[in-house]
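[job 0412] stage=fold_complex status=start
inputs:
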Amino acid sequence: MYEQYAHVLIFGMIATVIVVAPIVLFALIRPVRPSSEKLSPYECGERPVGEPWVQFNIRYYVVCIIFIVFEVEVLFMLPWAVVFNAFRDGGQNLQAAAGELKNLQGATGLIVFLEMLIFLVVLAVGLAYVWAKGHLEWIRETTKGPELLD
Amino acid sequence: MFDFLFYLFAVIGVGAALFVAFTPNVVHAALALVPTFGSLAGLYLLLGADFIAVTQVAIYIGAILVLMLFGIMYTHNIARLSGEQVTMQVGAGLVVALITLFSLVAAVISTDWPVRELSEPQPTVRRLGVLFLTDYLLPFEIASVLLLIALVGAVVISHSVQAGKSKDPS
Amino acid sequence: MLELLDNMGSLKYFLAELWLVLWILVLLIQPLIPRWSSAKISNCLAVLALIGAAGLVLALPVQDSRPTLFFGMLALDGLSRFFKILFVFSTLVTVLMNLRGQEVTDHQKPEFYAILLGILLGMFLTAASMDLLMMYLSIELFSLGSYILAGFSKNENRSDEAAMKFLLYGSLSTGAMLFGMTYLYGMTGSTQLLDIREYLAASGTGQTVFFVAFLLIFVGIGYKISAVPFHFWAPDVYEGSPSVLVAFLSVASKAAGFAAFIRLFYTTLLANASEGIWTPFVDFDWRAFVALLAMATMTFGNLGAFRQENIKRLFAYSGIAHAGYILVGAIALTTAGVESILFYLLTYFFTNFAAFAVIVYLADRHSMETIEDYRDLGKRSPLLALALAFSLFSLIGVPPLAGFLGKWYLFAAAVQTLDPWCIAAVVVGLLNTVLSVYYYMRIIKAMYLDHLEAPPLLKPDSVLVGMAVVLSIPVVFMFFAAGSIYEWTRSLSYFLVS
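[job 0412] stage=fold_complex status=done
writing structure:
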């Protein structure tokens, strides 16, 4: 298994070098003559207006939480999806796939499918809840007044 | 090679974690969690837990960190707050920390750990999938309830923050 | 001896939990349908769900074979049954108290109930867990729910502070617990409590690592039962959270902590040597350690309560002190000790909920939260004042009230061992009982002896007044049937390895 991940490691090393090397190199060879123009933050040629630290809308947070929950859900589904076929075949391939296992009683394709269905229904209710409460809509009818525009 | 990579990841992980703990800037602290989590993923991989390593990258770096940055960004007046670290109860904290450190280190050193020979690790996804559906079915399903509660809770709390904000625009 | 049930075979013993999951989903869907989205319907659904769950728990078939469910994840024994009954009725009482409450606003009620049912599910699983992974997951499930509910109060700032402190300290302590569990797993190679027990029984060495592991696990459990030095969250959380939730936490969360305590430590650490006397495998003086903690918990709790003006804060410290008393039953290391813990939790259920029915009523409807607010309650609402007075006397341990019976059994179980640590803990417990008289009597003095010129009248609320009265009946009259109630808890005190 390690060989496969050696690619990842080498890839990561090259990426690190590509990022770090120019920074180090340029820091060594460039002349240092700072001016207020040069030190101002770069905003595509525009002159920056106001503080960079503004308070972001809390709605990002809800979206992010929803994202985390469903990402975890996907990661739970992945191993299930990988072995589902083996269960459907009646478990003969499972012993080969997963080494020595003792507790395979009653785990047939249909039941394994239902088990995942329960998992998904529970989370689908969460999605329905969030959706119906309007947390997935960015512009809401209920928001009123200018104070929520930031 | 194994030892070299282990120490590389360990040094990066601990160094970045120290930076997280000591930097006065919260945004830098949050960003320094990337190498911390990343090197942890590397350590998991070295131990043969490939699925956990991928999970670590996807969930911690990909999602939790983003959540933390959002958490910092929607904090009011974060620019003025950053850098203000008040340390109280230094003496008591130090005593507790030292006792904890001592007992943890003592436990690790004095123990005769059951060590298994390092063998070429096998991919774990299939094994995990089978275990989720057999021995660990109950925790697997309960995890969905936990996620549901977390989701609803987060929505309710942030909703009440919004409602409070619209009432009181200070 | 032990029967291992597979996933499908376990389901028929798992109906109460499945039922709860179903109703969590229903309660979350209910507000989405406009025609159903009234607080009345959420109230009805929650009560219905809990009555059903109570029925299913009570109807759970008793198994002599003591099977474990889901390949050894959960135990089906008397201990889990007792705690499930306690939890489900705690939740029911909490929901009933909240029916007309305003602390949790009407449009938040469906979520409040759904998360409350989630907490209940977590507690059910905690009481039955036979696997470290399962135990951690279920403790996390009920803690997470409590953190969220602590932030539900309309009193924004205090409630936010409560939720925040609860969450931060709580994550730290459960993190420590998880770390301790990894040490156990690393040494024994299994997350199953029975395997760990086997390993410890066979090796039995006093390696430092086990001491550190169990200490770390105790950090997580001690936080739940609010034992010193992990009690710091309690006063702030009690003060800031919605009163109904405080009532729930003060009984159910503590009981869940003790369920995990008994389950984990008695299953892994102790051998049932003979005649109900348990001896530890690991040659470390656990008894001295827990005895010291128990004494510290009682003393700090009672001393902390002295200067409190806010009644909820006072009850937080009172709860800490009572956690200390219950720990005295745990250090007896006898079967009688376990029975007395269960019995004490039962008396504490009635006593604390009776007191909190009054506190919730006054805090929720009248924003009365300080001792000063309680002045002349004896005239303003004689029934409530009487109920509160009885439960306060019961908390002190005045004979023949329920609290006295509970303490009697606890201390008797500890003294019977004739162990110096146990006797020391009992002596400290008795001294603390004397100490506690002072602050409980302050409330009673305010209610009956401080007279107001023109006391403002209280709006009657039939549900809460009725609950206060109904719950204080067992507090007052339990001694008539103390023997048979104790027999009942004894019959449920057996668990897998006993």
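[job 0412] summary: The two ends of chain B are 58 Å apart (CA to CA).
[job 0412] exit 0
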